[in-house]
Amino acid sequence: MKQHQTTDTDQALITGLAFVSAYVDDFDKAYDFYTNLLGLEKKYNMGDQACFFGIGDEHGLYLQGGHEVRQTDVSTVRSTFTLTVASTSEFFAKLKDAGVTIIDTAPVKVGEGHYWFQFYDPAGNVLEAFGAE
Question: Who has the most CB within 10 Å: 8, 18, 30, 54?
């Protein structure tokens, strides 16, 4: 692969992250999960099978239904995104109580005061949570 030469004014550089996307089979089931369980707030409808959620002041999540489920597990190649939470242990317990499939047995310490774990959304997408204990 040919390397790109960069300069201080290079217009080909990535400058941020606009939003993340989750493609699901059952839009209504996923919408319920992302709003009622994860607590995301819908900002825009984007058709019958899609919407956009705001996450903080600068980020968002695009959710689109009508896709075929692809079987994945923790050993397959995939992309994911990480949600910031105030308390990983409280969020872990909330998901567990709701019957969400959680990959890790408990939040994993990943640095001084930081914890992380993975879980599945209803369509089988792997999501991650990161925050304080």
Answer: 30
